[in-house]
């Protein structure tokens, strides 16, 4: 699947509150996807979600 095929897809990006995960979330949003931003630090997750706009939602905590 290319980035051009992400429009209206829902993507979960783990570790998205910094670094490669954050950049990946930004790329997905730019291509029209809805993104669930996962991370362990609520403040960092919320900061990224706020910067991504209405198609981003935060998921905080462990996924195990």
Topology (elements, then pairings):
Layout: E1 10-13, H1 19-30, E2 34-39, H2 42-52, E3 56-60
Parallel strand pairs: 1-2, 2-3
Structure description:
- The chain has 64 residues and is an alpha/beta fold.
- It has a single domain (3-60), classed as 3-Layer(aba) Sandwich (Rossmann fold).
- The protein has 2 helices and 3 strands.
- The chain has helices at residues 19-30, 42-52, and strands at residues 10-13, 34-39, 56-60.
- The protein has a 3-stranded parallel β-sheet, with helices on one face.
- The protein is globular, with a radius of gyration of 11 Å.
- The mean pLDDT is 91.
Structural class: alpha/beta
Mean pLDDT: 91
| Share in β-strands | 15-25%
CATH topology: Rossmann fold
How large, in whole angstroms, is the Cα Rg?
A: 11 Å
Instruction: Please give the share of residues in helix.
Output: 25-40%
Order of adjacent strands in the largest pleated sheet: 1-2-3
